Each structure stands twice: as C-alpha cells, then as structure tokens.
Amino acid sequence: MEQKIKEFPAFKVNGFIMLAVVVSLTLIGGWYLASSVQGLEAILARGLKVTDFIGGEDSVAELVAWLAATLLVVVIPSLSGFFSVEPNQAMVLMLFGKYVGSVRSSGFWWTNPFVSKQKISLRVRNFNSKIIKVNDAEGSPIEIAAVVVWQVFDSAKSKFAVDDYSEFVAIQSETAIRSLAIRYPYDSSDDTNTPSLRGIPDEIAHALQKELQARLEITGVEVIEARLSHLAYAPEIAQVMLRRQQAKALIDARRQIVEGAVGMVNEALNRLATEQMVNLDDERKASMINNLLVVLTSEQTAQPVINAGTLYN
Fold first, then answer.
1. Which three-class secondary structure string do you get for the chain?
2. CATH assignment of 125-233?
3. Is the pLDDT of residue 50 over 90?
4. 17-21, 26-30, 97-101: lowest mean pLDDT where?
5. Domain boundaries, the chain
C-alpha cells in the first residue's frame, strides 16, 4: 500500500546570510586566482621556471585545484539553492524524486541546491460551477449551480495526491452538487415541513460544504464555504411550476382571508351579545353573518344598502 505523504517543514537557511557566504567565497577565490596569475607573470618575466613559484610544481597544482573546486563545486551550484516565498504561498521541495519538505515562511531562503522546487498557492480561491440540469428528489428537472470557497492547507497532498488539484476540485464540486440535488426536492409541496433546496438554504449550504470536504480531504484542500448560486426549474417545466406556485399562493391567501373574516364576524356577534345592543334571532344572525362574510371576502368594494325602516299607512 502506498504511503500517504503529509506536509512537513523543509531544511532552509536565511538567503541573505548564504548570499554573503557565497560572495565572500567568490572574492577569496578571485583574490587567490589574481595573486597566482601575478606571481606567475613575475616568474616568467624573470625567466624563472614555474616550479620555482610557491614551493614547486605540487603547490601550484594544489592551488589551482583548490580554486577550481571552490568556484565550481561551492559557488556556482549553490546559486540554484536560492529561492523566495511570497505570503500565502508554499514551496514544495523534492530531491531526486523524494519529497523533502515544504517551506511556508515568506522571505528569501537557501536550501540544498540539488532539490527541485514547485510553488503551491495557499490563497483563498473561488470556484463558480456551471449551471447543470439534474432531477430533484421528486423527479422534477431543475437547474442548479454553486459557489465554492476553498484553499490548500497541505501542500504535499495537493502536489502528490492528484495530478491537478484545481481540476479535481472542479469535478468533485459538480459531483457533490448533483448528489445533493437528488436528495432534496426543489420545494416542499405540502405543510409537513419537508426539507427542500429552496426552503432551508443554510442547511443545504452546510450539507454541501460537508460533502465537499469529505471528497477533497485527500487533496489537502479545505472548503471554507459552499453555497448555491443558482436554483430554478428547468425551462420545459418552469411555466407549469410557476402557475402551480401562483395557485398555491392564491389558495393560501384566500384561506387567510376566510379565517380572518370568520374571526371578525365571531368577534362582532360576541360583542353585540355582550353589550346587549340588539337582540338577534337565528334568522337575523344568519343574514348578518352572510352579509359580513360577503363584504369581508369580496375582492371588490361592497355597496351598502341602508334600511330606512318600514312605511306604514
């Protein structure tokens, strides 16, 4: 079974200190090289042999070898060990195919010059999913999309767990949106408080974030927030569902009007009976109730008819 790689700090040295060391070695090597050249010119000018310079032929060879080693082995390769890290950025280091750590601290650094380096952004990013068509829990075709806010929290997992973690986030986000949509209806069609995509947006956002985090954990990605950005019926049923919603709203409004009218009529009859303003028999009560309900529930303004009494001869 392949071992899972987790991020750990890599070896690093302050880049400015190492730069001073490299410059010092370069200056010392250059000074020795210049001194050797000047000494050699003086020997040739006097007509002497090279072996008469600083102890003989072995000493000259040793000096040249030391200078070459200093310049080629130390100074030149060490230049590739310098790198800089920006804020909210990580540098993943690999030595001959082996992960040797990550550097998260921003600044100028130096490390083993033979390691390869790759930058991983730790900044917060947004992913806007495409509007996809899917059937909800009741089988109705709907259009749905979401916005996912995420960032990398483990640079090693992001680098080695998948080929392209940004593409992985995009694909898994759309998969999670589809999975969420088929578990809930677009809207609850009764009074049973059935959870729906439209009725409980906060709970839906939390469920989407939880599912996305479980899918993206392997890539070292943290889902900060996930929320639906588009939710609508598919065009082929949008008009039908709109009429259905309008009818439901009209019925609810009528029900509320009737309940209010009945309450007002009941209150009026009780008040008349309590204050004994007038005594009404059952027939007159029925007539009064009918008139009040017509007035209170009518969509148009009722025209009152005033009873002036009975004219006797």
1. CCCCCCCCECCCEEHHHHHHHHHHHHHHHHHHHHHHHHHHHHHHHCCCCHHHCCCCHHHHHHHHHHHHHHHHHHHHHHHHHEEEECCCEEEEEEECCEEEEEECCCEEEECCCCCEEEEEECCCEEEECCCEEEECCCCCEEEEEEEEEEEECCHHHHHHCCCCHHHHHHHHHHHHHHHHHCCCCCCCCCCCCCCCCCCCHHHHHHHHHHHHHHHHHHHCEEEEEEEEEEEEECHHHHHHHHHHHHHHHHHHHHHHHHHHHHHHHHHHHHHHHHHCCCCCCHHHHHHHHHHHHHHHHCCCCCCCCCCCCCCCC
2. 3.30.479.30
3. no
4. 26-30
5. 13-121, 125-233, 238-297
